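Me: I keep going back and forth on a fold encoding question. No explanation is needed for now; the record alone will do.

Assistant:
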Amino acid sequence: MQTYNIHDAKTHLSKLVEMAARGESFVIAKAGKPMVKVIALDTPGSSQMKRFGFMSGQVKVPDDFNSMGAGEIQSIFENKL
């Protein structure tokens, strides 16, 4: 795996980004000390993206969801001041 110092990475950023996009990972070092590893992102295709409702039928919302804890909340506000 290639290692580039920060100055070279800044100077050749476009070339290095293209290289990483092709799958060639590399390391950026500062004063000879490795700091980061640059690799390509694997972005999911449109068929792999999760859509709203993917857990449909797997979650149960209680019938009293909108009023849950209303008594406790009311007592908290009434007892203040």
The chain has a mean pLDDT of 86. DSSP finds three helices and three strands in the chain. The CA atoms of residues 50 and 56 lie 12 Å apart. Residues 13-21 form the longest helix (9 residues).
